[in-house]
Design a protein that fits this description.
Helix content is about 50%, strand content about 15%. The chain is of the alpha/beta class. The chain has one domain. It has a two-stranded parallel sheet with strand order 1-6. A hairpin with a 5-residue loop joins strand 2 and strand 3. The protein starts with a strand and ends in an 8-residue tail after the last helix.
Amino acid sequence: MTGGCPTGKAQVADNPDGIVCDYTVMVGNPPDAPLLVPAVTRVIARTGKPPGALTADRGYGQAAVEHDLAALGVARVAIPRKGRAGPTRQAVEHERGFRRLVKWRTGCEGRISQLKHRFGWAHTLLDGLQGAQIWCGYGGACPQPRQGPGLLAAKHGKAARRS
């Protein structure tokens, strides 16, 4: 995040349909792991239920984070750990479901890239942290109107109209 805000970090949480469920903008480069549980808590507050599965990159990979997510009711967690994994952890990380979620997360990187390059998350034109938060909020909402009609039509078993 650059522009009117000092260099910072944006964290985004999306669902399998690519809808942004939560985002956070921070100044500086805080560690990733402590940011995940509060983000999931906000998603649960908005949706009324915990996510069925959750995946993130290695920066979030700590045993305490996985324990806290399980306590929140997240059924499957696929977060690779930092460093070399022991035999027990290797067995977990080589399971089919774990690998599948990690591959899905790789696809999420494309959505994040799209938010940065197509919807203005790379540079904000508004000043300060509050300006960057507003800018990212509008940037995260921009792709939603295009996805909404198709998702609603699929839910009701109808073909989506292209405009």
